[in-house]
Amino acid sequence: MSGSTFGNIFKITTWGESHGAGIGVVVDGCPAGLALNETDIQTFLDRRKPGDSRYATQRKEADSVEILSGIFEGKTTGTPISMLVRNTAQRSSDYSEIASYYRPGHADYTFDQKYGFRDYRGGGRSSGRETIGRVAAGAIASKLLAMLDITVTAYTQAIGDIEIPDANCPLSQLDIEEARNNPTGMPNQETSLRAEAYLQECMARMDSAGGIIACRVANLPAGIGEPVFEKLDANLAKAILSIGAVKAFEIGDGIQAASANGSTNNDSFRMDGSSITKVTNHAGGVLGGISDGSELLLRAYFKPTPSIFQTQETVNRAGENIVIQIKGRHDPVIVPRAVVVVESMTAITVLDMLLQNMTARIDKIKQFYL
Amino acid sequence: MSGSTFGNIFKITTWGESHGAGIGVVVDGCPAGLALNETDIQTFLDRRKPGDSRYATQRKEADSVEILSGIFEGKTTGTPISMLVRNTAQRSSDYSEIASYYRPGHADYTFDQKYGFRDYRGGGRSSGRETIGRVAAGAIASKLLAMLDITVTAYTQAIGDIEIPDANCPLSQLDIEEARNNPTGMPNQETSLRAEAYLQECMARMDSAGGIIACRVANLPAGIGEPVFEKLDANLAKAILSIGAVKAFEIGDGIQAASANGSTNNDSFRMDGSSITKVTNHAGGVLGGISDGSELLLRAYFKPTPSIFQTQETVNRAGENIVIQIKGRHDPVIVPRAVVVVESMTAITVLDMLLQNMTARIDKIKQFYL
Amino acid sequence: MSGSTFGNIFKITTWGESHGAGIGVVVDGCPAGLALNETDIQTFLDRRKPGDSRYATQRKEADSVEILSGIFEGKTTGTPISMLVRNTAQRSSDYSEIASYYRPGHADYTFDQKYGFRDYRGGGRSSGRETIGRVAAGAIASKLLAMLDITVTAYTQAIGDIEIPDANCPLSQLDIEEARNNPTGMPNQETSLRAEAYLQECMARMDSAGGIIACRVANLPAGIGEPVFEKLDANLAKAILSIGAVKAFEIGDGIQAASANGSTNNDSFRMDGSSITKVTNHAGGVLGGISDGSELLLRAYFKPTPSIFQTQETVNRAGENIVIQIKGRHDPVIVPRAVVVVESMTAITVLDMLLQNMTARIDKIKQFYL
Amino acid sequence: MSGSTFGNIFKITTWGESHGAGIGVVVDGCPAGLALNETDIQTFLDRRKPGDSRYATQRKEADSVEILSGIFEGKTTGTPISMLVRNTAQRSSDYSEIASYYRPGHADYTFDQKYGFRDYRGGGRSSGRETIGRVAAGAIASKLLAMLDITVTAYTQAIGDIEIPDANCPLSQLDIEEARNNPTGMPNQETSLRAEAYLQECMARMDSAGGIIACRVANLPAGIGEPVFEKLDANLAKAILSIGAVKAFEIGDGIQAASANGSTNNDSFRMDGSSITKVTNHAGGVLGGISDGSELLLRAYFKPTPSIFQTQETVNRAGENIVIQIKGRHDPVIVPRAVVVVESMTAITVLDMLLQNMTARIDKIKQFYL
């Protein structure tokens, strides 16, 4: 079965393996007339590069994007936008050993079970490099949303147990500038430094960490999302869980809501001048699967990187119990680099549902065509 | 945009409103040759009925299902199975008042924003009664899975703060028989009684409660799920978040995994005779989006019922701040009745991905056709 | 695999067998705010009923439709519209014999090969009665198109070799009123009488006839259809070939175009006041898969009814060569009753592509949302 | 709306414009384990190159394919196969003039109406070069079908009025070797020479020609195709009409069937040893949308190339009536080069429906998994 396409109208198809010729994406259904060039894409891709961070893989890739189609005279034409990033720093020899066994926490075993064999170099298709295609597409979705005054902002909320204070505070109280420039992606300098100290401790123990990424969408109009299976939050849940290493998703108060009472969890409506607002936002901006005009707030829970340098017990393809020690270049935590991936998948999903919503009412369709 | 269809191969389309003529579902893509009759469906539907529970709505519906197509000589024919449940106990007069205002925590406001107006009777399409279609389809999916020796079991893990002990224990240590017969759906009599006490306290306060439903899939073969966007857990996340009132989803250790280390979160592989197993199951049965042969374990977090009998502040359609007091028939907690809904959506998703997996390998396709 | 759903945004799912409990359709993605009642649907359904025609089956069904959902206060709500027509005049005994053999020209053999068995009563799912769902949905699509001043008109162009004169003449020169009231569906009284004579001759020979249905769409704006796989004419071709008994499809000059030269087949553009028109319309209203603003013109070629009363050679399920003589109630020609089916499938497809087109341009999206 | 993806399980997404950086395709859902290299693809691509034919464009492109992903150790891995062909012989200056006006018979006007502007160089996305992606994917589909002993063979049946004798004769009586090596693609040397003479006459008149391509699928098992909207022939019709310049599609006797009688059009079944065959094949291998085990036979009707060198009347973007004379490099007939495109789209469609059919029966699913 095909599984590399996401979206209904704004539809992306990613392809590529960690150690193949390259990684890419085809974005189909992008509206015509958007000014777009490679710099728009590269800016996003650079956010997921390991950079000089000591908490990220030592594999250094330029990740330079080439736009192969869909742009004419600096604007999208409405036809598919194909984007390509060549792999250049493959060192497949690092991986020759892992061909023979199954790394704990990785997809080695499940790929073998599904397909009979696997491209074992660097995780193949289940490598984090697959997200390059998502981020390239996310750059376009974000630019389109910006044309509609909608902004999507993700950041690291927690690494291990180290969490920013007051995680539900207004976005304006977070230091997003800080988050874009420190190695943790946290919008709070003090917490970020503590998280760094924790990561160094993990590395000293040859261990790895997980964390939480939050994402907020500002200025999303009410009415976006479909009422039953294509709920806005249901599609966001799929989008976020489709990112490798994500193990949980919540919208608004999410997990906490399960132990709350209706009287405290309900958000009262109130007139704000001539427009309707909510006094609180426990719901995270969605009621009945449809955006309610307040800020959309979701969280993704990432497991710790499975590649650790401690010895681990596992089995090999010959069916023997063995002890292994993984080599190669790995991130002790992937959360900081995944921030832009969460932001991209959120932007893609929200845009797709904005487009889907355009056919909801006969009066608006008449206005469009007549 | 259409949003009432779920699944790719085993595809369900639900329809119907709380106070319309009825509720139903069309199941398309059901394989031919499955013995099926109305009792198979009714057994599942009866599990979501309020019954005599004091913690459930006082609306009493027979919810008798009629199979309208797709069965011949007691077996599925491979063509669509259409199922209909007539609404019989509508009391629309209960709802005439709410036509004019927006109930906090409900989809009243968002429907109006999306469609320009709404069927305000009993929540219309966003009523819990919509899940009748899902459960009817889930009954079929579960029966099909049983033919492949796969079983899906959901139960209540928590109501409010009252949680069963040792939530990660083996399924065999839970009293599922108890869960099927008590009013909380909890597989532990002592916890269930405490949860009942808590619910009575909530009702005394004219308040409502939320909770957690866990669902486990036993005997699922390894290799099910697609590696990128159509990950097994990503599709389960969408399936579960598409249920009204669900605000978070986790697979395996999920939320806890975010603060764990790789050394403790990784599940070691080990030979068990001639077959490969995992020593632990923090992953919840999925690696890289593909089932790993161990038990699938997911959790759904439900918010408290938004309909409470306390006075609440809100606005009306005329744009005035008002104070309301909701009438009607409402569940103080929907978790116990939602257990079979979670089980159904899980079964539907797992079955669909089992069918999708059949085309993964050329050797198996050759075996099928030659 | 599921195959009973058609459309991307305006999406219909049909279900039901000839001799089951009933036939129906779920229309999902219908925009909110359309005034709709059962009479709108019934008017269309009545056009496919055999009526008193001697050229149609003697099975008399009321085919009364019940709308089960999706309408509130006389208008569509944007949620699924479920429609049900009960079967009432089943005479399954007519078909007990055909359970054992394969009728030439029917789907008996292919169903058995695919599913292992079949509902043999009256053709089961491949009965012409399946089109009831299409026509009910087509009634809605047509009403929606009418709101946009777009009209869809189908009629019989030929029965056997008897064809209306000047098949490419303007629609205004055809007598559609005549077509709606005579037993052939031909918009020309003289030709219709000749076709009737031909049909009586066929019946005397215990034989059946085929024919051609033409369909025209007036006032369709330019720009509808997508450039590659989702071409307007490609989707129409699928829609039309999905009708049982259709064996060919053409758009515009279609078949004749293959032997024409570019100099005669090209349609010149010309200014008509301030708007662009085409001098001729060999293309049938589509260029590069996208509507060009002129009349859309397509044709469907129907094979003769396979049920004939002559003896025929075939095989039975036991693998023996046998001679059969079909009993039951059959149309000597299905073309007249299929006119409304062609019209419905055309309307559904055109509407779906009109809705899909709304997201083609960023300037129009901005206008919609800002 | 996105429209560049075709297929449900074996799913292809094409991208690229005539004068952009390149043309490509992503093939998702290809089963794992198929031996595949660039030569397999190049062989197919070479069949659509103009070669030295005087009846084809003078634009000479190497059309060298690069496989960017999805292959490991010489075999497909089950993940997306991305293929890229760079454009190298663009001469955009040829097209600067046509930016300002609408060529008759081309998609210039409709693209402008849809998107507000267009990539006018060489037809942009609606160029025949778009089919490179289809043919690259068709090469894979054909190789997969060959593993199942199924072969797909297309050839030119007619150019203008020049048609091969006995178009319904068995495939074995056609000279496919001849068709692969002459400039017309006709499986009959004498007819091909006459067609060449006709084309030279057209060129002398600065005119163009159309024609008919036939395609046959041998050894397709019975039972492929879904009974209602996803009929095998309905999907083939869409696949074929999605090819630029195709104006009609027929299956089996198609057009002729409309004027036949049931007694002659019905194909009798007969035992052939222990297996069931049909005495004739007017149906073209499909009954009720499902393959019947006999040869599949379809035809595509192509209009004459719209680019002719005669003067033509049209309008420009400024809204003035003008007279134009097209320059550039154009095929006087595209039929010979389109043979491999028809073959590819047929192979892709048939393969996709073979894969879809694998979930039709519970007994076979049990056999697969247990």
Short synopsis of the structure:
4 copies of one chain form a homotetramer. Chain A is α+β, with helices and mostly antiparallel strands and 370 residues long.
Low-confidence stretches of chain A: none
Strand segment count of chain A: 18
N-to-C span of chain A: 42 Å
Question: For the report, how would you describe the main beta sheet of chain A?
Answer: 5 strands, antiparallel
Helix content of chain A: 25-40%
Largest contact between chains? A-B, 115 and 115 residues
Q: What's the helix count of chain A?
A: 10
* Oligomeric category: homotetramer
Strand content of chain A: 15-25%
**How do the SSEs of chain A run, as a string of H and E?**
EEEHEEEEHHEEHHEHEHHEEEEEEEHH
Overall average residue pLDDT of chain A: 94
What shape does the CA trace of chain A take?
globular
Round the Cα radius of gyration of chain A to an integer and report it.
Answer: 21 Å
What class would the helix/strand composition of chain A place it in?
alpha+beta
Strand order of the largest sheet of chain A: 1-2-3-7-4
Write up what this structure looks like.
Four copies of one chain form a homotetramer. The first copy, chain A, is α+β, with helices and mostly antiparallel strands and 370 residues long. Helix content of chain A is 29%, strand content 22%. In chain A, strands 1-2-3-7-4 form a five-stranded antiparallel sheet, with helices on one face. Chain A has a five-stranded antiparallel sheet with strand order 9-8-10-16-11. In chain A, α1 (38-48) crosses α3. Chains in contact: A-B, A-C, A-D, B-C, B-D, C-D. Chains A and B meet through β1, α2, α6, β11 and α7 of A and β1, α2, α6, β11 and α7 of B. β11 of chain A pairs antiparallel with β11 (246-251) of chain B.
